[in-house]
Backbone:
């Protein structure tokens, strides 16, 4: 009787454990409960920002920025500084050059902490669509207006002062329309697509060398972001691209096998029309691939898992997309 009772208790314990596992497992990835989100760099930056207003000597301002911000920075900030080549001196220079911009963007960046739950919810949704999702850390930092976001290995790095810009952000001090064009369709919730976009990058593999590969590499992130969020993105280059797709499609075909990106990528400050239209081209190729796929979940895996170091595989992907 004693043995029977113990076995019943054991079976009950196993059953309860199994039930708890299946309830909780969607929120666990390799021992990590949701993504790790770091926002301390934002508070540290504004503490440094306020402190440098109390001194006039540039050397002292740099020393303050270094001690209160960059030296205390997260691992993500330190990596971002190397990747985008900025430091305490560049930050102080940027603040002195664009004071109206910095004062206008402050309150937006401070909203990020309140969106942590939303980021985590959308990453869980991403995981439900793509079970192979590897965990990544998300760092919200302040750069010297260097980039809205980038990645390094399993780190998604967000430049909060650009990612949180909108049509009310003061860009009157800038000599070109790059930020104005980027900010115009944005609102504070657009930080969510930025985070998902960069998170997708942490899942990709291979080095994109020609224009076609680089555009699919970027555009895939926008397309997967739309799938995760279940809504069209409102990036300025996507809005422009949708209106001018046929002409862009033919122009892109002429250049897509080359290694010159200047007409399509990272050209917001030099183009006369709209910058970063290569993002749109990659996005719409991925969209066509997905639309023609019978198995949509498998298509998501193939878009995210595309090996950009294998030219043959990329060309097969383009052919299967039936875009041309």
Residues:
């Amino acid at each position: 009787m004693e043995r029977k009772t113990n076995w019943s208790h054991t079976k009950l314990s196993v059953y309860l454990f199994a039930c708890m596992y299946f309830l909780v497992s969607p929120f666990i990835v390799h021992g990590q409960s949701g993504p790790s989100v770091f926002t301390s760099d934002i508070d540290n930056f504004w503490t440094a920002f306020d402190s440098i207003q109390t001194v006039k000597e540039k050397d002292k301002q740099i020393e303050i920025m270094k001690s209160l911000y960059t030296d205390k920075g997260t691992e993500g900030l330190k990596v971002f500084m190397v990747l985008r080549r900025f430091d305490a001196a560049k930050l102080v220079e940027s603040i002195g050059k664009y004071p109206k911009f910095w004062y206008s963007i402050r309150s937006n960046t401070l909203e990020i902490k309140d969106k942590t739950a939303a980021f985590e919810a959308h990453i869980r949704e991403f995981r439900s669509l793509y079970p192979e999702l590897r965990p990544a850390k998300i760092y919200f930092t302040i750069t010297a207006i260097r980039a809205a976001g980038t990645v390094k290995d399993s780190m998604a790095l967000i430049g909060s002062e650009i990612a949180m810009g909108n049509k009310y952000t003061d860009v009157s001090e800038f000599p070109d329309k790059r930020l104005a064009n980027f900010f115009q369709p944005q609102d504070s919730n657009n930080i969510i697509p930025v985070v998902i976009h960069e998170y997708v990058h942490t899942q990709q593999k291979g080095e994109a060398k020609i224009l076609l590969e680089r555009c699919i590499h970027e555009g895939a992130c926008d397309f997967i972001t739309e799938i995760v969020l279940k809504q069209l993105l409102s990036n300025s280059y996507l809005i422009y691209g949708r209106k001018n797709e046929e002409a862009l499609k033919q122009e892109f075909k002429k250049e897509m096998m080359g290694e010159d990106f200047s007409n399509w990528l990272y050209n917001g400050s030099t183009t006369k029309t709209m910058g970063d239209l290569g993002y749109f081209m990659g996005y719409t190729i991925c969209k066509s691939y997905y639309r023609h796929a019978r198995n949509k979940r498998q298509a998501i895996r193939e878009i995210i898992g595309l090996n950009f170091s294998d030219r043959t595989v990329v060309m097969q992907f383009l052919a299967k997309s039936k875009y041309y």
Notes: Confidence is low (pLDDT under 50) at residues 1-35.
